[in-house]
């Protein structure tokens, strides 16, 4: 799909389809299509009871007119509209255009600037996403949209929006791959392939090297599986002196059965998505390689499969992590934090100023915030506020949970080892974050995003389809780009 700006008068254009985004109760943008067309369209929309409420979409045939079909898409009340409203609206339109076999359309937005232009490109690319490689039937042979012409938009913004959305789509597809296709070994191969394509450095450590480096926490989680764990380190280095150094860490459980503390069937279903943090890291590195910020960026993934077997790690095991701290295992299903103990220790040794980790870490976070919002945890006020500000623009919902409850912290400091891998039922997302904090090096600013909810969408919504969402990619990339300027 090609997205282009169109600066001239739409009346001079010979595109047969138009998409017009409209605020509630305001059809004025229709006038840009000419007086005859807008009068007919207004009449038809009135008959269809189109009010411009968010999500409302009407197809209006205009036989004999220059524009033969018009799609009116509601944005909702003007004062409530934010950037994500534009993303969702154009995604809704794009899904419909695809279904109707429309190959080219003019898009008119009531407001346009660089940020809205970027959001429109993102929404269009995200909205055209499908994952149908395993469908052998003919229905997948739907026509692709060839060209969107966006009236009065800003061309460079499209480029950035397209790169971001394509990176997010790439992450979504990886998440959607099942455990029999993506396991720790094939995930590492994919990282290498990506690095080659986009000229990144990539180092993969196998199960022997993982043990030799003292990453026994990651190794323990992975040792119950027939497919051994891998540790993946991607690096982007800018030309010239970097302005900053940041590490992005992703939880990479290619499947989480729970291990010996096995999950009931209903809960095990969809656990191929437990690698979403890792997939986001790959998406981020892909976008960074294209956008080339003046920042050194490291992408770290501890890849493992959590399985029950005769070689699996057990409840009661005491394991030494890379930073020397001992972890007692209470529950083998709290495995993500155990793998992240080593990944965060390794990340800290790279001496970055900042670390972001993304992990589908706890069901408790979904209980606290619902399934559409990520939990944010931090040791740095400034860093957290900046991520929250950016997340508002990317539409990736985050909400901060507190880390200052020292009575809660005691719950992971019990038992014979330095830390225990669960802190009980209450405040489960917080005690998990407190566990992670034990492995973040002194003086490093750190943000942890618990993406257990938003990494996966049960239903189609806006620019999401059912399945992996690629949550976190755009927020992290935008943050890194901000460090560069
Ligand atoms: N991967 C899960 C968390 C999860 C649950 C992600 C649902 C997405 C949807 C994690 O490894 C896990 O099993 N967490 C346990 C921790 C508990 C044993 C302390 C949980 O949340 O129940
Ligand atoms: Mn688990
Ligand atoms: Zn897990």
Structure overview:
- The protein is α/β, with parallel strands linked by helices and 485 residues long.
- The chain folds into 2 domains: 2-151, 3-Layer(aba) Sandwich (Leucine Aminopeptidase, subunit E, domain 1), CATH 3.40.220.10; 164-484, Zn peptidases (Aminopeptidase), CATH 3.40.630.10.
- Helix content is 36%, strand content 21%.
- The chain is built from 15 helices and 19 strands.
- The strands form 4 sheets. An 8-stranded mixed beta sheet has the order 7-8-10-9-13-17-14-15, with helices on both faces. The chain has a 6-stranded mixed beta sheet with strand order 1-6-5-2-4-3, sandwiched between helices. The chain has a 3-stranded mixed beta sheet with strand order 11-12-16, with helices on one face.
- It is elongated, with a radius of gyration of 24 Å.
- Zinc ion (ZN) binds next to strand 9.
Predict the CATH topology of the largest domain: Aminopeptidase
Label the overall shape.
elongated
**Total separate domains:** 2
Distance between the termini: 29 Å
Assign the CATH class of the largest domain: Alpha Beta
Number of helices: 15
Q: Major beta sheet, specifics?
A: 8 strands, mixed
Kindly provide the radius of gyration, computed on alpha-carbon positions and rounded to a whole number of angstroms.
24 Å
The CATH architecture category of the largest domain equals: 3-Layer(aba) Sandwich
Record the strand order, biggest sheet.
Answer: 7-8-10-9-13-17-14-15
Strand content: 15-25%
Determine the mean pLDDT.
97
Number of strands: 19
Bound ligands, each once: ligand BES, manganese (II) ion, zinc ion
Which structural category fits the helices and strands? alpha/beta
> What share of residues is helical?
25-40%
CATH superfamily of the largest domain: Zn peptidases
Low-confidence stretches: none
